[in-house]
Design brief:
single chain; alpha/beta; nine-stranded mixed beta sheet; about 15% strand; globular
């Protein structure tokens, strides 16, 4: 088997079906593949209709929502492909979204993990190139502070050509193609993460032994934000960010808390009160609510549950998602 394609579905059957259809229409007949579709206890999921979408589709049903990382690990353990592609359900594949990247990683021994360009439905760029060169560290966390991030712009000089294949520090979990050994030698995602930052934590481990590459020669459409509630999504993202820093160590976690509540929260409050733009005030009002909601998680739940890598049943998620 050349390629195992893993997709997680949770109450997004329409999006997932569109994703599988785009895959079926565009993948080369020369690639021997399987699709492993994990359904995380969706209320709108119909096995019979999904089986009609693709003859190589294998369905892994769950009674409950296992989260993104745990569901992907489950599918990867069942996969048999020499390469694995993790694919978000809210993506649409184009003519060269799979065939080109598969040939690229197959022909280049230096590329262990590969990501490709994300675009919107209108074909405009969704994620700027510079994002893939950033690392999740305290320096960059400070540089993202409101006002400060307007004064300091991260730039990466990579030459005049518009399209490049480059070694990077980060990739998106929406589309991640890698050699099977990458999963087998690292164990996949840390299952304490319910959703968000699981790929950040995994990629941090991968960079020690494997090469991460990003190419702009190939692209896919990402219908970003359609697979879950936008506000709940942001709450969960900040919760997972806290867990990420806790796992780095107590010192880093304390610095993360200090930056968040001595810098981020006060600046957000000031901008909420004094900014002249109503839209900007509403934006920072949302973040004041988020930082306030995270207090009990950051100062009580995360430290006292003592989360550790791959701890069974340690998955951290919002009470609203329980």
């Amino acid at each position: 088997m050349d390629l195992s394609i893993v997709i997680i579905n949770y109450n997004t059957s329409g999006l997932t079906a569109a994703c599988i259809n785009s895959l079926t229409q565009n993948i080369s007949p020369k690639i021997e593949y399987e699709i492993l579709l994990v359904d995380n206890g969706s209320v709108d999921f119909n096995k019979r209709s999904f089986r009609l979408l693709n003859p190589f589709l294998k369905i892994i049903p769950n009674d409950t929502n296992l989260g993104f990382g745990r569901a992907n690990n489950l599918a990867m353990k069942s996969s048999i492909g020499d390469y694995i592609l993790l694919l978000n359900s809210d993506t649409i594949l184009l003519e060269e979204s799979i065939n080109g990247p598969f040939q690229l990683i197959n022909e280049n021994v230096d590329i262990d993990v590969l990501g490709i360009k994300q675009i919107r439905e209108d074909k405009t760029e969704l994620v700027p190139r510079k994002v893939y060169f950033k690392e999740e560290n305290l320096k960059n966390y400070i540089l993202n502070i409101p006002i400060l991030n307007k004064l300091i712009s991260f730039k990466k000089s990579i030459g005049p050509n518009s399209k490049k294949t480059l070694k990077v520090n980060h990739l998106s979990g929406a589309y991640m193609l890698f050699k099977r050994k990458v999963f087998e030698n690292t164990g996949g995602f840390d299952e304490d993460f319910f959703m968000y930052y699981e790929e950040t934590e995994w990629l941090k481990r991968l960079r020690k032994d494997y090469n991460l590459y990003y190419t702009e020669y190939f692209e896919f459409i990402h219908l970003h934000g359609r697979s879950s509630s936008r506000l709940i999504m942001q709450y969960q993202m900040h919760l997972s960010r806290g867990l990420f820093w806790y796992k780095k160590g107590v010192f880093y976690y304390l610095l993360f808390l200090m930056i968040t509540y001595i810098l981020y929260l006060p600046i957000s409050i000031l901008l909420l009160i004094f900014h002249t733009s109503k839209a900007t005030r509403l934006h920072f009002k949302k973040y004041v609510f988020i930082y306030s909601k995270m207090l009990k998680y950051y100062f009580n739940i995360i430290p006292f549950k003592r989360y550790r890598t791959h701890q069974p049943n340690g998955m951290l998620k919002l009470n609203e998602l329980v």
